[in-house]
Design a protein that fits this description.
It is built from 15 helices and 16 strands. By secondary structure, it is of the alpha+beta class. The mean pLDDT is 93. The structure holds adenosine-5'-diphosphate (ADP), magnesium ion (MG) and zinc ion.
């Protein structure tokens, strides 16, 4: 039997504010444990939360940049549960009146475009962090760090419309790109500012009803999200094929083993005993404020992609890669403004530059080669000073030494040989050394021509202009 997989993602995103959502404590990451705390975020009795306007503003941007409708009158709710990292015994979240509903994100996998619906986007406060044993005096004890309690989050919930691990990964990539462009979040997964839970179920192809889902947590990279989904789908199919049924539960992903395992069975939503938060007034958002926020949104990745295709006449694929982040897009636009060869620039950024940066784990802003220098290298290819092959060698050296292209070419004598008489000399030398092959060529074995070109290129240490070599060799041999 063939199965179809059904995936819905819940993404928690930390909003880029200076202070927490209901108090003035700092959100700075990496402070000594419990330094960023006060009675409000420690959940002391009798304290009153006050909503951070900037957090709301950023949450509105998250809604508007993902095509959600803003709920004009929305409010916070208490989600009741006990956990050591949740000092109040409840989390302030939103429930029946979330900030945004009914959005979507466009994705594209293997050339197929698809719209993925967003059920809702709601604001909530983060919980603290438990530290078990590690690096502490007593390895048998657990500790709790409340620096993160009250950090502002939005939860972005997708419709169950994703149909493969690859689609899920692409959805996350697009979502992250939007949040990054609109400066809503720094989306740093290592610091926990973007976290994803994957809901997965399978159903026999053609069946209308969804199967029972599991929810996998602890997915700290997009690659792991994809792998965990693929693992989970295989596991569920095996369970069903054995005639057993799927248990609705929360699972964890172990990235070193590449498996998911059961963590706890899933509480039903009503167990949280949600009720409207009595310490906070409902939030009323005027049309004017929505419009103003809309006007503040920058050009988003999709719009930029379209503009790149139109104005630089580059393929859709290139435009996609070049707009993955604002920084890459800016680097590209800067380069293209310095030198009007948008496709050549695109090739070098996508190929050489991004590859080197990826190997070093660096972002493009930290690139040792700035647009000005990249462009001056490309000019050397265009005016024939460097062959494409030599240019790659120069590029590597530029990347490591932060010298300019011209400096490297001059110092190493790497310039392409375009002087006909110099090449003619090489041609003659090679013809004299390979009389046998010349004979074969004249007797009709044309393949030998390529061999001779190779010999000449080798003699020139790869520096002879290949077009000229071909032409001069042909003249001589015929
Ligand atoms: P909960 O907090 O109980 O997990 P949410 O509404 O926050 O509920 O999130 C549910 C997520 O699960 C959504 O992303 C939704 O698309 C997805 N989902 C719901 N039903 C299924 C299903 N049968 N298979 C896969 N995903 C599902
Ligand atoms: Mg959930
Ligand atoms: Zn505080």
């Amino acid at each position: 039997m063939n199965y179809e997989m059904v995936i819905g993602l819940e993404v928690h995103v930390q909003l880029k504010t200076q202070s927490k959502i209901f108090c003035s404590c700092s959100t700075t990451f990496g402070k000594p444990a419990n330094e960023n705390t006060c009675p409000v975020c420690l959940g002391m009795p009798g304290v009153l939360p006050v909503l951070n306007k900037e957090a709301l503003q950023l949450a509105m941007k998250a809604c508007l940049s993902t095509n959600c409708r803003i709920t004009p009158m929305n409010r916070f709710a208490r989600k009741n549960y006990f956990y050591p990292d949740l000092p109040k015994g409840y989390q302030i979240s939103q429930f029946e009146l979330p900030l945004g509903v009914g959005g979507y994100i466009n994705i594209q996998t293997n050339g197929v475009k698809k719209k993925i619906g967003l059920t809702r986007i709601h604001m909530e406060e983060d919980a603290g962090k438990l530290i078990h044993g590690e690096n502490l005096d007593s390895p048998d004890k657990s500790y709790v760090d409340f620096n993160r309690t009250g950090v502002p989050l939005v939860e972005i919930v997708s419709e169950p419309e994703l149909r493969s691990g690859e689609e899920a990964r692409e959805y996350l990539t697009q979502l992250k790109s939007i949040l990054d462009y609109a400066e809503i979040s720094d989306c740093n997964m290592e610091e926990g500012s973007l976290r994803c839970d994957a809901n997965v179920s399978v159903r026999p192809e053609g069946q209308k009803e969804f199967g029972t889902r599991t929810e996998t947590k602890n997915l700290n990279s997009f690659r792991f999200v994809q792998r965990a989904i693929e693992y989970e789908v295989d596991r569920q199919i095996k369970v069903l094929e054995q005639g057993d049924s799927i248990i609705q539960e929360t699972r964890l992903y172990d990235s070193s083993k590449g498996v998911t395992f059961a963590m706890r069975s899933k509480e039903e939503a009503h167990d949280y005993r949600y009720f409207p938060e009595p310490d906070l007034v409902p939030i009323e958002i005027s049309d004017k404020w929505i419009e103003e926020t809309m006007d503040q949104l920058p050009e988003l990745p999709e719009q930029k992609r379209e503009r790149f295709i139109q104005s630089y006449k580059i393929p859709e694929y290139d435009a996609g890669v070049l707009t993955t982040s604002r920084e890459i897009a800016d680097y590209y636009e800067k380069s293209a403004s310095l030198h009007p060869n948008p496709k050549l620039i695109s090739n070098w950024i996508m190929g050489e530059l991004l590859r080197e940066l990826k190997n070093d784990g660096q972002k493009i802003n930290a690139s040792p080669i700035k647009p000005e220098r990249l462009v001056s290298l490309l000019k050397l290819i265009e005016d024939g000073t460097l062959s494409a092959k030599m240019a790659k060698i120069v590029f590597e050296e530029m990347y490591r030494s932060s010298k300019s292209a011209i400096e490297i070419v001059t110092k190493k004598g790497l310039a392409q040989i375009t002087d006909s008489s110099a090449i003619e000399n090489l041609v003659d030398e090679v013809l004299q050394l390979n009389t046998g092959q010349v004979e074969q060529y004249r007797n009709g074995k044309e393949k030998v021509f390529g061999f001779l070109v190779g010999q000449i290129m080798k003699k020139s240490k790869g520096q002879a202009d290949p077009t000229l070599v071909n032409k001069l060799l042909k003249d001589r041999i015929n």
